[in-house]
From TrEMBL:
Top-level taxon in the UniProt lineage: Bacteria
Upper taxonomic lineage: Bacteria, Bacillati, Actinomycetota, Actinomycetes, Geodermatophilales
Transmembrane segments: none
Residues in Histidine kinase/HSP90-like ATPase domain copies: 206-308
The MEDS domain, residue ranges: 17-160
Cited InterPro entries: HATPase_C_sf, HATPase_dom, MEDS_domain, RsbA-like_anti_sig
Record-given protein name: DcmR-like sensory protein
Length: 311
């Protein structure tokens, strides 16, 4: 669980993650401008990655102080899919940590307004865990005029802090990252009767099975399917003598399910967490980045992972 540190009392040692939902220009100015100026006063690098509306307001109200920002960038150019966007953030933050004791970021994920950008809510939730040790204040801006209600609800569930009048306060709707991920992943229904099922004891068997099972009209995804399945099977066989591999088609999605009888996953967020660049586990991260969606059921009796590949 992320510690809750409002601006002003923040000690600059770990992540403070605040979601700010705004509707009017004055709300943006009254929250973001003091946030930026406080960073300047504390000698912290201040980064702003936002949409055109927010950038225009800041340019108008900061005047010559705009040049003091360490970054002032258009958020529209940053989206490259959930995994690649978070990976870019992670690399930039690691670089900052090597150069500054603490910093702050005002970021507006404008891509949440797009259907293909909605997955970012999962990465915002996971940031509470994977970035917790980073010494920075993250002010996440969300425009209520542009974002649908479901996205705004996810903002409350994925940010430990929210702006409440005159100061940040604990967000009562906030959920633990694992609980949030379980709630938003594809619903887990029973395996259909027509599923093709194989038992594999080596990754090479899984690769062959995937090559044979993928329908002809989906062969363009063969590389993604084979590599993602390989990574999950490798993980499964680390804790189990065999893995069960099932495949079926569900509407537009080709579904791959890998089931094992191992001890369960140590952390269900791994598929969304950028791996350590030196020696971090990266199998789930790679599989999740190749698939269009994923779902997990895990416990002491074993783990089942489903990967979804659309046309």
């Amino acid at each position: 669980m992320t510690f809750l540190r409002p601006t002003g009392n923040w000690d600059g040692t770990r992540l403070a993650h605040e979601g700010f939902i705004f509707s009017t220009d004055s709300e943006v100015v009254e929250r973001v401008v003091p946030f930026v100026l406080e960073g300047f006063a504390r000698g912290e690098p201040v980064l702003v990655v936002a949409g055109e509306r927010v950038r225009s307001l800041l340019a108008r109200h900061l005047g010559t102080d705009l040049g003091r920002l360490a970054t002032f960038a258009a958020a529209e150019t940053w989206w490259r899919g959930g995994h690649d966007t978070l990976l870019a953030y992670d690399r930039d933050l690691r670089d900052l940590r090597a150069r500054a004791p603490s910093w702050r970021l005002a970021a507006e994920p404008v891509w949440l307004a797009r259907e293909d950008g909605r997955e970012w809510s999962r990465f915002e939730a996971v940031a509470n865990r994977c970035l917790d040790a980073m010494p920075y204040y993250s002010l996440c801006l969300h425009d209520a005029q542009r974002l649908p209600t479901a996205v705004l609800t996810a903002v409350a569930r994925s940010h430990p802090l929210t702006w409440a009048g005159a100061a940040p306060a604990p967000q009562p709707a906030y959920e633990d990252p694992i609980g949030f991920l379980r709630a938003v992943q594809p619903p887990w229904t029973g395996r259909p009767g027509g599923a093709v099922v194989d038992v594999v004891t080596a990754p090479v068997q899984a690769r062959r099975a995937m090559s044979a099972a993928l329908p002809g009209d989906r062969r363009a995804r063969l590389g993604d399917v084979v590599l993602a399945t390989h990574e999950i099977v490798v993980n499964a066989l680390r804790g189990s003598a065999f893995a069960e591999l099932a495949t079926w088609t569900d509407g537009e999605a080709f579904v791959v399910e890998v089931t094992d009888a191992g001890p369960g996953l140590p952390d269900e967020t791994l598929g969304y967490v950028p791996p350590d660049p030196v020696d971090g586990p990266r199998g789930m991260w790679l599989a999740w980045s190749l698939a269009d969606d994923a779902a997990v059921r895990t416990g002491p009796a074993g783990t089942a992972v489903r990967l979804y590949f659309r046309r």
